[in-house]
Amino acid sequence: MKASRNPFGLTLALVAVMSMSSFGKSARTYYDPACMERLRRNLERHEWARAQRDRALAEAERWAGRDDAFLRAMVIPPTVPRCYDIHQNGCPVHGTAANRNGLYKWGYSLDRPFKIVCPAGGEEYPSNDFAAFLASGQRDRSLLTGDYPDDGWGWQKPGEAHATWFVAYYAHWSMQREVRGALEALSLGALLSADPARARVFAHKAALLLWQLAVYYPDYDYATQARESKEHNPTYTGRITNMIWEVGWADTCAVAYDAVWPHLADDLDLQRQAGLDAAGLDQYLRERLLMTMARDITSGNGRNRGNFGAHQRALIRLALALDESTAAPTSAAMITWVLANPKPVVDSDMGLVDALENLVYRDGFPPESPGYNMIWTQGLAEVAGVLGEQASALRAHPRLRRMLLWPHELRVAGRFHPPLGDSGDIFAGVSMLSPSTLMTALRWDPDPRLAADLRGRAGAGSGDLFGESADEVLARPCTSARGRTTATGISSTCSCSPTTMPCSAMSAIRSRPTPSTTGATGYGPTPWRTTRSSSMLRARAAVVASCTPSSPMALPRSPMRPASPTRRSASTAGP
After folding, report:
1. Reduced to 3 states, what is the DSSP secondary structure of residue 419?
2. CA–CA distance from 8 to each of 119, 158, 313, 387 (Å)?
3. How far apart are CA 317 and CA 311, in angstroms?
4. How far apart are CA 488 and CA 389, in angstroms?
5. How far apart, in whole angstroms, are the C-alpha atoms of residue 352 and residue 338?
6. CA–CA separation, 351 vs 340, rounded Å?
7. 275 in helix, strand or coil?
8. What pLDDT sits at residue 546?
9. pLDDT at position 416, please?
10. Per-residue pLDDT averaged across 207-217, rounded?
11. Which of 11, 46, 122, 182 has the fewest CB atoms found within 10 Å of its own CB?
């Protein structure tokens, strides 16, 4: 496979204008002045923004009420194993009844560390005090008392091949939900508070969590510290959690670091706890936490790699927050990796430009099931959005634009997506782009179908605190799908327009005036084919004929497949 030669004129000017200094950075570079100005404008103009701010500050105050020792203890050390479920047979007493409402429903409280509660019977596990065992350096096994003791590697029921993982479940979910939640809330509070004293408190608490994570982060190794690697897949790697969910930690830590960065120099309390001066503390966070995450992604070691678009988005956030010009990978190198990685280890590491040519079908459908394809679409849309005008030519690429529309075109009766692959059962609901993704997409592609989706979402009428309001996006004059310009906002499209999706071997027609009923047929030699009935296709054509002549139906083509194994470079291939 040839690497892309940046065929669409993309530049790295975004990185060139980043502030540079002999140490770290000299200002916020993710929440830059333009970003903060959008925040100020939203708070001034919109009630929804003020309501979001108030909720965010209340959540920050909740976490700020915890003392530093409590917050540090929330960060579980690498010596404690992690897992996201207990056992395939559920509870030792109630069996699979504990799984009746899902695998992740066991209760826990931060005030009862390492204890979890059965959702079926309400009893608490493990029987021993694991916090005391951990304080002994995980050596004093006389502390493993009661009927269900757990040393971190689970309780072993006689005759069972696999352990039941109480402590590891607490470690995983308290980190995923509580530590990340606290870090997000506190760092956002540092940005939003109009009281400088409270902003400093929030920033201190968030930076404290970042520092404690940095103490441990290089030593987290999911391949040797997790139930999944011990019992099922010894090569499944990651850090705090598996490689796919690990992407979320990079997302969270990158923007939290940028939010609290201006307060690090004056945080004498944290410098004292860390035993570092201001410069040393900043370098510690950068090198042991953020740069470790960036190297995990760019090296291809697999410790931080999600579905396509997820780790690319995280790396862009790391690049912007770090503003790194010296250590490898630099911020410029991170952005280059996302756009045109010359040496991808696996397909999901492929540069964005090459991936559009090699991994995405010509009608914009990624190669997975609809549910997972949504991750591709939302991740790539955010990458293109965060890069701003530097990605304007990339955003005009036909396949990226089509990626924004396939969730609409695959929809049946306005309510369902065909349950292809592992997207759900026969009652699977429709998957839709998030309101934030729809607003990002509408800024460069005012398609009426995207606008209709945004109007129908709960997020319409609100927006991103640091971006545009949904109302402002929807009110922007644009050209409709039929070529008419309106000054009253993005109009709706012909509701009976047919669609043909060769990638999923499906064609659909929609009734007028609303798409409440739909006729759909499958065709072609695909594993989920439903019918190749020519009479069904003729019936569909007859209904389409009743629509206006400006809405012709594209007749089905042979199902498209991605490019051949001899992959193409975007520098030599057309759309």
Report:
1. coil
2. 54, 63, 20, 14
3. 10
4. 26
5. 6
6. 4
7. coil
8. 31
9. 74
10. 98
11. 122
pLDDT confidence tier of residue 564, bands split at 50, 70 and 90? very low
- The shares of helix, strand and coil residues in the chain, as percent rounded to the nearest 5, are 45, 5, 45
Measured CA to CA, the distance from residue 354 to residue 339 in angstroms comes to: 8
In sequence order, which residues have a C-beta less than 8 Å from that of residue 111 and are 6 or more positions away?
A: none
Measured CA to CA, the distance from residue 195 to residue 204 in angstroms comes to 14
229, 239 contact by CB (below 8 A): no
As a three-state string, the secondary structure of 143-185 is HCCCCCCCCCCCECCCCCCCCECHHHHHHHHHHHHHHHHHHHH
Tens of pLDDT along 246-301? Answer: 999 999 999 999 999 999 999 999 999 999 999 999 999 999 999 999 999 999 99
Question: Where is average pLDDT lowest: 48-57, 129-138, 364-373, 461-470?
Answer: 461-470
| Cα angle 26-267-27, degrees, rounded to a multiple of 5 | 15
User: Is pLDDT above 90 for 69?
Assistant: yes
Please write down the long-range contacts of 112-116, taking CB distance under 8 Å and 24 or more positions apart: 113/73, 113/170, 113/174, 114/166, 114/167, 114/170, 114/171, 115/166, 115/170, 116/86, 116/166, 116/169, 116/170
Amino acid at 312: Q
Cis peptide before 565 (omega within 30 of 0): no
Rounded to the nearest 10°, the torsion over CA 58, 61, 65, 66 is 100
Average pLDDT over residues 106-135: 98
Whose CA is closest to 15, among 335, 386, 393?
335
Integer angstrom CA distances of residue 10 from 314, 340, 467: 20, 10, 23
